Amino acid sequence: MSSSASPPSRDLKTIAGIEKSLTFSSFTADTAWEVGNALRSRLLNFPIPAVVNISLANSNQLLFHSATRPGTQPDSDCWVARKRATVLRWGCSTWSMHNKLGGDETAFAAKYMLGEGAGQYAIHGGGFPIRVNGVEGVVGVIVVSGLTQEQDHQVIVETLEDYIGKSQSWD
């Protein structure tokens, strides 16, 4: 695999369609382990460190967390928390929120009347909702942080396309 990811779409309908298509038939701790390891393996192709985090939506239950190489900073976990909070509050990827608001964090804070709480959310790519067929809402969140926001997002998309594509062919 290469140390690049194809550029993600910036079209909101396309982004929503991709998110909907990447729905799991089920999601367990074993699934999180497999997806987390697939993401970590994919990220090892990039020369800079990144963090992978997978957690459940109904709690702060952590299912997977890993740095890809030396050099991650404590700030990485702050980004993970901020991206996770955005996915949980708005039910879509952080990349979708980024493109919905043109990346304008001031407009984002004003639109949602976040005031001084705006810093707990991030509209940078890399936060992705976990959805399961037959279950309403988001059941978990996948976060990648450390690359460019486009790469953070697209690595998740490409890894899930591969993982879900293979798992559906087994069904």
TrEMBL record:
InterPro entries named among the record's database cross-references: PduO/GlcC-like (IPR005624), PduO/GlcC-like_sf (IPR038084), YBR137W-like (IPR010371)
Domain of life of the organism encoding this protein: Eukaryota
One Pfam family this sequence matches: HbpS-like
Coiled coil (UniProt feature): none
UniProt name for this protein: DUF336-domain-containing protein
Lineage of origin: Eukaryota, Fungi, Dikarya, Basidiomycota, Agaricomycotina
Any single GO CC term annotated in Swiss-Prot or TrEMBL for this entry: TRC complex
GO biological process: post-translational protein targeting to endoplasmic reticulum membrane
